[in-house]
Write a sequence for this structure.
């Protein structure tokens, strides 16, 4: 027969063990539930962080792209403005150089005007015939400036003072000039060295050449190529001693008593811009 005291101790031991098992199970269950809850939460936070990062990167990309487009547009506008400024500066430089060249030319003309023996009126060529410049041209001075028909017209070019032609018609503010290269313009002339005389006019069919006729054939050996021809002033509208041209060729026939000389004009009439009209009065 078992003792009642022994039976009671055995029951208490089993109860204690059962209690410990229950507590342990509850603790493990608690840890398991917390892990199950925390893990999805962690996954959600990670996924949210990924999308936030991607969204931020996308926004930054488009923002940078828009900024780059704006910068490129600004650069293009600045480039176009710079190009326009450069074009303007280039135009100003060309205009300035043109003005300098014109000033140099005007200074030369002014210096020449003060040295000419005869009273003169400076004029600018304002009209030419494109197809036949050597027939006539228009200057910007007329009767208001004292110009009259048949006044001699001269020019200064490359250090040379030469005959250009004569005034054919006058208006109040402009005049028509016939150049010596016109076949209808005749000038009494003399060779500078041999002193032989003749009559110069434009060579028909060759607008930039002159012909000197009625030169004594005996002077053939005395005339050299390149010799200067000047106005003689003999029974002529033109004053004496103005350069006309240089001898280019000489020609004659055996039965002729005179020969013809072709001349290159001293003044290239196609190039000149300014001329001087010699008045009838002489400087005091």
């Amino acid at each position: 027969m078992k003792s009642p005291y022994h039976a009671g101790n055995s029951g208490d031991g089993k109860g204690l063990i059962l209690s410990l098992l229950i507590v342990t199970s509850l603790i493990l269950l608690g840890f398991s539930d917390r892990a199950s809850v925390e893990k999805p939460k962690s996954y959600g936070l990670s996924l949210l962080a990924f999308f936030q990062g991607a969204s931020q990167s996308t926004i930054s990309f488009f923002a940078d792209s828009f900024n780059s487009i704006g910068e490129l547009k600004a650069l293009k506008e600045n480039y176009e403005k710079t190009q326009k400024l450069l074009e303007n500066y280039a135009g100003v430089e060309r205009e300035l150089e043109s003005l300098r060249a014109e000033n140099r030319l005007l200074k030369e003309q002014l210096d020449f005007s003060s040295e000419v023996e005869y009273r003169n009126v400076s004029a600018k060529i304002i009209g030419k015939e494109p197809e036949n410049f050597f027939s006539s041209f228009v200057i910007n001075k007329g009767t208001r400036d004292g110009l009259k028909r048949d006044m001699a017209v001269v020019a200064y070019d490359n250090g040379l003072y030469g005959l250009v032609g004569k005034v054919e018609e006058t208006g109040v503010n402009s005049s028509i000039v016939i150049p010596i290269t016109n076949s209808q313009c005749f000038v009494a002339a003399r060779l500078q060295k041999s002193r032989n005389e003749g009559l110069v006019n434009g060579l028909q069919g060759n607008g930039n050449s002159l012909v000197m006729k009625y030169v004594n054939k005996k002077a053939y050996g005395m005339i050299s190529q390149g010799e200067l021809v000047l106005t003689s002033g003999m029974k002529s509208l033109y004053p004496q001693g103005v350069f006309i041209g240089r001898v280019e060729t000489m020609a004659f026939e055996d039965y002729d008593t005179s020969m013809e000389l072709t001349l290159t004009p001293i003044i290239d009439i196609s190039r000149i811009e300014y001329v001087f009209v010699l008045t009838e009065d002489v400087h005091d």
